[in-house]
């Protein structure tokens, strides 16, 4: 299991998968990884186009992005919720100190039997239009409310515990923040590097979305090639927004995904593969490989990683209190 942190390379209203070439795209994203990220990166190998990465493994020039989360105050204004580092039960200095980023997991339950994606590979997990519970999404995307301070979590597998995990936003203040987990499909058709909806060329195991600790589930005959279990994890630092006096008077919760969803069901993420050479395949073939040190992969310090950046293309206020969510009738500044 590779587990490593990636600080943001940029926050911008771009989406080269769903809205290639569109500037700006409909809603805001937080993007991590290589500095080749741009609005038109729809084809080819991105590892050769990037000169640096925000990820702790320098061979990983991939890009990963998710919707941002915003807090809506009683006066109707919105504020972007920052991200914390990792849950503190893990001894990972890079991830625990990175702030404003994403934790990335690649898991192989059967070393030597997992095929790493190829250059040009892309995929999307989740459905941004979803506003109600969907049974087959139960173990795909979830939230966990941390009840202790300092992002104090637990070791229970993500999206696997009906008591700890929910498909929708938590409905009460979370003293330690809110953790998001997004699990990508683990089966590939072996032919197509992408598909029109960025989902049809991949599939979940026949047993449904896989638990990241048991990624060896059987693949359907239409998608016979097992790929690593990719999971993204974000700890949203909601601790500054836990004052009950700031929450809606009707008892509803005040958080919104950046595409206007205040249910949380529309959580989604995008992935563009960009590992150098065969570095990911080598790591997936290595037994007893855990955490942020594995298979000879080169790592970098968090302060070095944070120097890798992409200049924002869409000029919008990303830190202040906003009258509208970006993309929803908010004028450019």
From TrEMBL:
InterPro entries for the chain: DUF1996
A Pfam family this chain is assigned to: DUF1996
Limits of the DUF1996 domain: 15-275
PANTHER family: DUF1996 DOMAIN-CONTAINING PROTEIN, PTHR43662
Stated name of the protein: DUF1996 domain-containing protein
Organism in which the protein naturally occurs: Melanomma pulvis-pyrius CBS 109.77
């Amino acid at each position: 299991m590779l587990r490593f942190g990636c600080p943001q390379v940029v926050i911008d209203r771009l989406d080269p998968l769903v809205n290639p070439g569109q500037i700006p795209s409909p809603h805001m994203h937080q993007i991590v990884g290589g500095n080749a990220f741009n609005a038109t990166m729809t084809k080819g190998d991105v590892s050769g186009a990037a000169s640096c990465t925000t990820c702790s493994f320098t061979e990983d020039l991939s890009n990963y992005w998710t919707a941002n989360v915003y807090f809506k105050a009683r006066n109707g204004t919105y504020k972007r919720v920052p991200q914390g580092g990792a849950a503190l039960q893990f001894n990972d200095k890079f991830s625990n100190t990175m702030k404003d980023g994403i934790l990335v997991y690649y898991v192989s339950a059967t070393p030597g039997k997992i095929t790493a994606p190829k250059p040009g590979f892309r995929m999307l997990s989740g459905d941004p239009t979803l506003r109600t519970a969907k049974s087959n999404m139960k173990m795909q995307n979830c939230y966990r409310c941390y009840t202790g301070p300092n992002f104090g979590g637990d070791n229970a597998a993500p999206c696997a515990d009906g008591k700890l995990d929910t498909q929708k936003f938590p409905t009460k203040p979370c003293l330690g923040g809110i953790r998001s987990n997004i699990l990508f499909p683990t089966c590939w058709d072996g032919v197509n590097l992408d598909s029109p909806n960025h989902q049809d060329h991949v599939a979940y195991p026949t047993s449904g979305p896989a638990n990241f600790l048991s990624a060896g589930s059987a693949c359907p005959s239409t998608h016979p090639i097992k790929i690593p279990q990719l999971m993204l994890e974000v700890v949203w630092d909601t601790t500054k927004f836990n004052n009950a006096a700031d929450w809606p008077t009707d008892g509803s919760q005040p958080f919104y995904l950046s595409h206007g969803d205040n249910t949380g069901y529309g959580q989604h993420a995008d992935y563009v593969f960009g590992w150098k050479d065969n570095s990911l395949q080598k790591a997936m073939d290595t037994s007893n490989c855990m955490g942020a040190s594995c298979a000879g992969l080169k790592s970098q310090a968090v302060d070095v990683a944070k120097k890798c950046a992409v200049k924002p293309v869409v000029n919008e206020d990303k830190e202040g209190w906003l009258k509208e969510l970006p993309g929803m009738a908010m004028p450019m500044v």
